[in-house]
């Protein structure tokens, strides 16, 4: 049967995608799971759908880092796993994560694919492929006791807030680079460039310099890989996207 795994999902007006997310959790090959949905007072049916899947629903107006900390405070599992409502898990994600945990393992990285037919989603998916095994990837699966010992997420951080907890756990002497083969499918069919850049502008207000946020580190990963040049259109798309993201983030930081 195994130990209980607590899956925490921050939500806000997520009715269009949360059913798919919850279905993928219910369909896991690992069956000892509790689901905690921390909702930012959605105006749609997000809460109703969460309850339909027997999720524990908690309402809070805070940002994502606070929502995740609320999940940490309310979780009952041996392990805790953070995902977004627009994500879908392949069948063996949780079982593989549990199998890879050891006394020295502080966090497990799950590879991601961006799913969608539009040009910018294809660019995003191509970009993700170059981050495999790099420090850009952040662990999502942790031992609950370790997450609490590390002090959870930094609530004042909005930009790449998911990196804060594994960074803190790594400083405690644990390995947070263990990866599994099964993937998270990140459904980004509704991706809109203008909305994305507006979000980067907002996130820029809390941006700090690190490898997680450094565009120069990312460019180095791209240019050092010969595969980057194999798809010229997507390559150009990545360079345009990273340039626009950087401008939006810098404007947010100095505003």
Number of helices: 10
E-strand count:
10
Any idea what the CATH superfamily is called? Spore Coat Polysaccharide Biosynthesis Protein SpsA, Chain A
Question: Can you give the mean pLDDT?
Answer: 93
Shape: globular
Q: What is the name of the CATH class?
A: Alpha Beta
CATH-defined topology: Spore Coat Polysaccharide Biosynthesis Protein SpsA, Chain A
Structural class: alpha/beta
Q: Record the strand order, biggest sheet.
A: 3-2-1-4-8-6-9
N/C terminus separation? 52 Å
Corresponding CATH architecture: Alpha-Beta Complex
Strand content: 15-25%
Give the domain tally: 1
- Helical proportion, percent range: 40-55%
Unreliable segments of 5+ consecutive residues: none
Largest sheet: 7 strands, mixed
Q: How much is the radius of gyration in Å? A: 18 Å
Order of helices and strands: EHEHEHEEHEEHEHHEEHHH
Question: How would you portray this structure in words?
Answer:
With 255 residues, the protein is of the alpha/beta class. The chain is 40% helix and 16% strand. The chain has a single domain (5-254), classed as Spore Coat Polysaccharide Biosynthesis Protein SpsA, Chain A. The strands form two sheets. A seven-stranded mixed beta sheet has the order 3-2-1-4-8-6-9, with helices on both faces. Strands 5-10-7 form a three-stranded mixed beta sheet. Strand 1 (5-11), helix 1 (18-26) and strand 2 (33-39) form a beta-alpha-beta unit. Helix 8 crosses helix 10 (232-254). The termini are far apart. The model has no long low-confidence stretch (mean pLDDT 93).
């Amino acid at each position: 049967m195994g130990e209980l795994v607590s899956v925490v999902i921050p939500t806000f007006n997520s009715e269009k995608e949360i059913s798919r997310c919850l279905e993928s959790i219910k369909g896991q090959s690992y069956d000892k799971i509790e689901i905690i949905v921390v909702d930012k007072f959605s105006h749609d049916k997000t809460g109703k759908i969460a309850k339909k899947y027997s999720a524990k629903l908690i309402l809070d107006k805070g940002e994502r880092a606070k929502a995740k900390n609320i999940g940490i405070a309310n979780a009952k599992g041996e392990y805790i796993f953070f995902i977004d409502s627009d994500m879908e898990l392949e069948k063996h994600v949780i079982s593989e994560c549990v199998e890879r945990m050891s006394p020295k393992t502080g966090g497990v990285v799950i590879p991601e694919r961006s799913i969608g037919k539009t040009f910018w989603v294809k660019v995003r998916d191509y970009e993700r492929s170059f981050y495999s095994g790099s420090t850009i990837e952040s662990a999502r699966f942790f031992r609950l006791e370790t997450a609490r010992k590390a002090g959870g997420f930094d609530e004042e951080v909005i930009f790449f807030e998911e990196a804060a907890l594994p960074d803190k756990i790594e400083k405690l002497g644990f390995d947070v680079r263990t990866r599994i083969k099964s993937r998270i499918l990140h459904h980004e069919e509704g991706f809109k460039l203008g909305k994305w850049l507006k979000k980067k502008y907002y996130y820029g207000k809390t941006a700090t310099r690190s490898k997680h946020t450094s565009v120069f580190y990312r460019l180095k990963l791209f240019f050092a890989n010969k595969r980057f040049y194999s798809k010229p259109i997507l390559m150009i798309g990545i360079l345009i996207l990273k340039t626009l993201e950087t401008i939006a983030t810098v404007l947010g930081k100095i505003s």
